[in-house]
Amino acid sequence: MNPRFSHVGICITDMERSIAFYRDGLGFEPGTQLTVDPSFGYEGLVGVDTPLTMVNQFMRLDAMIIELIEFRSPTRIDRDSTPRMMNKIGYTHLSLRYPDVDAKAQELETLGGTIVYSSRTKEQMFGGEIVFILDPDGNRIELMSYGDDVQFA
After folding, report:
1. Which of these CATH numbers, 3.30.70.580, 3.10.180.10, 3.30.360.10, 3.50.50.60, describes 94-144?
2. Of 8, 74, 84, 153, which sits with the fewest C-beta atoms within 10 Å of its C-beta?
């Protein structure tokens, strides 16, 4: 059997706020929601040594699936007050295409996002426009204006 993409997990602080941001702002559709409690025995899977309680909300946009994860116990480890640097090993960003990145960024700001104004770029190779926005928890999202004729894979 060939491997297939499953999903990308994102740790968040407020499930309802994040659902609204990803659903209303980015167009993701909510799917399965799971509440994990200590009876699941997932502590080793997640890498914690205390009883685990968390809520997991799967969200779909076309073939992309994300899993919003809100830790209830143990509580999450908060991020620094500054956005995570892109050259730090690990997850860097989620990228989505919109015809008007500025309008979409403004809309997302009303849903708790933060526009990274310094990232606004007119890309030279393919002629698209790019801007980053942070979700309500500081996770970086790239908004790109490339048309469907530009393919990266």
Report:
1. 3.10.180.10
2. 153
Establish how many alpha carbons lie within 13 A of residue 141's alpha carbon, considering only the half-sphere containing its beta carbon: 25
Q: Return d(Cα 150, Cα 49) in angstroms, integer.
A: 46
**Which two tokens mark 146?**
């490339």
Count of CB atoms within 10 A of residue 44's CB?
A: 9
Lookup: tokens for 51: 């009883």
Is pLDDT above 60 for 137? yes
Query: What are the C-alpha distances in Å from 75 to residues 12, 51, 78, 102, 119?
Result: 11, 11, 9, 35, 31
What predicted TM-score, i.e. pTM, was given to this entire model?
Answer: 0.84
CB atoms within 10 A of CB 1: 3
Residues carrying CATH 3.10.180.10, the chain: 8-73, 94-144
Q: In this predicted structure, what is the pLDDT of residue 2?
A: 74
CATH class for the domain made up of 8-73: alpha beta
CB distance 38 to 53 below 8 Å = yes
Average pLDDT over residues 47-72: 93
